[in-house]
Amino acid sequence: MRAFVCRSCSADNAFLETVRKGLPGIAVESVDCMSGCTRPQTMAFRAPGKVAYLFGDLTAADLPDLRVFARHYAVSSDGTFADARILGDLRNKAIGRIPG
After folding, report:
1. Long-range contacts of 34-39 (CB under 8 A, 24+ apart)
2. Can you give 44-79 as a three-state secondary structure string?
């Protein structure tokens, strides 16, 4: 699994570093604009053979939900979930789900 944090959303790296420290064992990369400009801070998760997720309106306060998401995403065979409630507040911050 890899996670991507938009570097265009923020002038500093504080969110990127928070995510890197808060999601140990996950490769977290910064990338250029992910076209979530109306909902900064944006972040995506991808894994081979799984749907990808794009989230927006993220802050450091979302880190606990991001951890829960990453744990469930890692064990899901295709990246989907029978019940979106396990995502906590992230279900309201989802911008898109991209087929794998």
Report:
1. 34/4, 34/6, 34/8, 36/6, 36/9, 36/95, 37/8, 37/9, 39/93, 39/95
2. EEECCCCCEEEECCCCHHHHHHHHHHHHHHHHCCCC
* Length in residues, the chain: 100
- Name the pairing type of β-strands 94-98 and 43-46: unpaired
Give one DSSP letter per residue of 5-37, joined into a string: EESSS-SSSHHHHHHHHHSTTSEEEEES--S-T
Euclidean distance between CA atoms 6 and 39, whole angstroms: 11
Q: What pTM value is reported for the model?
A: 0.93
Consecutive 10-residue averages of pLDDT for the chain (100 residues): 92 87 96 92 96 96 96 96 90 92
* 3-state secondary structure (DSSP) of residue 97: strand
Q: How far is CA 52 from the centre of its chain?
A: 9
